[in-house]
Structure prediction request, 420 residues.
Amino acid sequence: MRLRVVTAFALIGVACAQADSETGEDDIFEAQFDKPDPNNRWTKDVDVKALAIGEETFLPEEGALFDGFARDVTNMQERLELANKRKLRGFHAKAHGCELGELRVRVPDSLPQAKVGIFKDNKSFPTWVRFSNGSGFTQADKKTDVRGAALKIIHGGPALRPELGTGTQDIVMTNGANTLAYNAEQFVAFGKALTDARVDENGEDVGILEKLQSTGGFILRPENSRVLKFLLTRALPRVKFKGSMLSEQFWTGGAIAMGVRGDPMTGRASAAAKLTAIGGVLDRDGRCRHVTDLPNNRDASYFRTDLRQRIKNGEACLDLQIQFQTDPKKQPMEDTSVEWRERDSPFTSIGVVVIPQHDPDAPAALERESFCNDLAFTPWHTLPEHRPLGNMMRARLPVYRESAKTRGGNPREPTGNEAF
Ligand code: HEM
Prediction:
């Protein structure tokens, strides 16, 4: 067993060294969109210098591709039923907590461009928050994985896609500013590789990096060098140093529109932005104070234990911040593995999500949690002003819809009038 793990890391080390010497770059996730990955069909042959703010690249065949991704994910859910005992989310299967709180929008007057859609007025909205691990199966929190935080803000207004339900704005985030895959196609291929590893395995749970090594070397293939590098330089360190959901920072990874010109589904976004949410506990002055906590590796669900303890003792919070696209060359829309650097465009706080202090073991709290877990969070639960942008976001329209259907999720959006 030990030998297998050591071998995996040795191989990964060699592959990383190769990736570095090939690119000659210190950090492949830094802005370098003038040299996009040649395997990314959404950036191939695109003149990046001619791109405008908010501009996307649509491919004629992409609708069929996205429907294919939805079928792939449904297939993953069916295969993972063996390991999960039931059909769960295609990604982010394990929840650490699912809570009802409140978003208090507080856009500073110095940032009028953010006063759009859900952020137009400094109002408060009931908001569901689901914290999760990234993979489509449950495993101990100490295993290498991405973490997620999904918000469902209940505003009662119109929807860009009414067939998915109305009245809500979802903000779906993971704990990386950029994504491990450069596009949706690579993202789904990664999910399939994880599934292959998981369902073939009948022994000890060894963690994502080792599993990928045992599944035909998905991350060792040259075209997946960014995925490998992401796992080693971004995902793995976080697993070692973060022991609380409230010590994490989450990002949307993909962009949303801040207003759209013309047809809400196809028109050019007037502005594009990414969001981040920084976890913490609310102090006496109403500030969201970031938590610093090391993982307790003996507890397989340490995030859940930690969150419940903190909610029992006080108010938990997420400081919500926005970052605008200012240079399409440095801040690409169709390659989310390239980070929008804060030194090119800073984040500004525009509100806070507060989860009230309560006893998470009380029967009403458990009922709320189960209701929340059944909900469907998707970037496509959105006001028309905030259309999700870029292939990584567009692909998620059919994929999340089908994943929620397959796992028997609640097809209705909450209204805020539920008896909780
Ligand atoms: C910027 C990139 C992405 C981020 C930040 C992200 C984040 C998340 C998060 C936080 C969840 C959990 C939502 C919940 O708590 O219910 C989730 C679920 C999911 N994600 Fe993503 N994701 C991204 C891209 C993708 C892509 C490209 C795909 C596939 C094409 C995908 C497929 C899924 C699926 C199938 C679910 C489960 C949906 C459900 O059953 O309700 N995600 N994602």
Remarks:
- The pocket of protoporphyrin IX containing FE is lined by residues 69, 73, 89-92, 130, 132, 148, 150, 172-174, 179, 184, 187-188, 252-254, 336, 376-377, 392, 395-396, 399-400, 403-404, 407, 409 (CB under 6 Å).
